[in-house]
Amino acid sequence: MNPIEIDGSFGEGGGAILRIASALSAVTSKPVHIFNIRQNRPKGGGLGVQHLKGLEAIAELCNGRIENAEISAKEIWLYPGKIQAKNLYIKIETAGSITLALQTLIPASLHAPSPIKITFDGGATDTFFSPTVDYFRYVFLPILGKVGGEAEINILKRGYYPEGGAKVEVTTYPCHGKIKSLVLTENKSLKKITVISGASESLKGKKVAERQLAGVREVLGKLKLPIEEKVEYCDTRCPGSQICLIAEFENTIIGADNLGKLGKRAEDIGKEAALELLKEQKSGACLDKHLADQILPYLALSSGKSRVTVSEITNHCRTNIWVIEKFLDGKFEIKNNLISWLPDR
Question: Which CATH number fits domain 4-182+288-343: 3.65.10.20, 3.40.50.2300, 3.40.50.720, 1.10.600.10?
């Protein structure tokens, strides 16, 4: 079988093309040639450490072979074999994103014959340009559960940019080929909003986590919404902070997160996250714009038609759709903020 040709410069031209293409290659057993990898990214693009680690892990999981797998490579070939149940150990020396690595590994892991334990030694649980681990645990995974996917995340040690140093264990459970379709078009009533504000132990004296919460209260306090608050301080290799807001509705979950930044008030970090959540909620959509990107491959792997409303059709979303349609028989349709998956079968 000739490899599927994927131009990594298409659309937003980032790492998501590589992650989705390699994941679907493993699931469908279709070889893939990805070129112009991360062409539209600064610093010359190509494979970074976290991308290479993800590729190596997916190849191990599916007994596959990678050609040209090296740092800064602009093209690779992945020849997948059969997905088997095997525990994975992934060592990440940098602050590479663990949640982005999981975007590659979870689709294939669900198609293994038995549970898989993935251990991350190093990397970041909370870093820029990727979902925080709390968003991944409390927003993405519950929606994944609606289509029949199950995974658990155990954080042993958090890691922030720029030093990483996280320790995380992830267990995935097989779906036995039964990914379900999803219909989420009308947002039902809000049950509660959970706010998780965390920071390094070294920032406890400055009350960074509490101040991030104060920023959230400044935005949401007047609205008399049902809110639960959690404050966490963790031993980390370098200072950092994160906040995640999880809005739980009767039929869905949406979220917003943010990271502390040097020179920026902790209160403003919380305020930005709260304003983002309100924007998502006011859209009336069932999925926030980031979750839309992440759930699309599962909809296309399901057994039937799916329809979901999303707050915004981003370029990232359109790029992901383009990649998915290269591997699977069917097509996505977009009408206003409604995304539908129509399988050929």
Answer: 3.65.10.20
